Amino acid sequence: MGGIVYDARRILAYQGLVDLGEYAGKSREFIDSLWAELVPDGELMKEWMYYLDHHSLLDEAKCRGYALTDLYVWQMDRYNLIREIGKNPDACNKETMVLNAFRTMLDMKKDPETFLRRLTRGTGMDEL
Predict the structure, then answer these.
(1) From CA 20, how far away is CA 38, in angstroms rounded?
(2) Which residues pair with 62 in a beta bridge?
(3) Is the confidence at residue 96, as pLDDT, over 60?
(4) Are the beta carbons of 19 and 40 closer than 8 angstroms?
(5) Which of 26, 77, 107, 114 has its Cβ near the most Cβ atoms within 10 Å?
(6) Are 10 and 46 within 8 A, CB to CB?
(7) What is the pTM assigned to this prediction?
């Protein structure tokens, strides 16, 4: 029965995504959509597995010069500008921001020009 390869690491990666997604308050739809796009993207899957092991970003995967840490910081800046209420709710915890960075990177790979405009424009109140 040759030819069957069982990669238990991916099962653990999926379970890690489910666990972190639930902790971060993400919907099952968000989690499943993120997983469906992570699986065929080898470099982002490597980033995800690294994150699960080290709780830090590897930053090897890039799109137009932007890495996951750049997108993480961008998410935080946007959150702080728009929703600063003096407390850190679930929407601003580290795991939420990391999951959002992965989601943004996947979306950016599909439509880099739109995200480059978003990442490089000013953050004045009139641009929200």
Answers:
(1) 15
(2) 67
(3) yes
(4) no
(5) 26
(6) no
(7) 0.81
Torsion of CA 110, 63, 112, 10, to 10 degrees: 20
Dihedral in degrees, nearest 10, Cα atoms 84, 85, 91, 95: 80
Q: In the Cβ-directed half-sphere of 39, how many Cα atoms lie within 13 Å? A: 10
pLDDT tens per residue across span 10-22: 999 999 999 999 9
Residue type, 3: G
- The predicted pLDDT at position 82 comes to 46
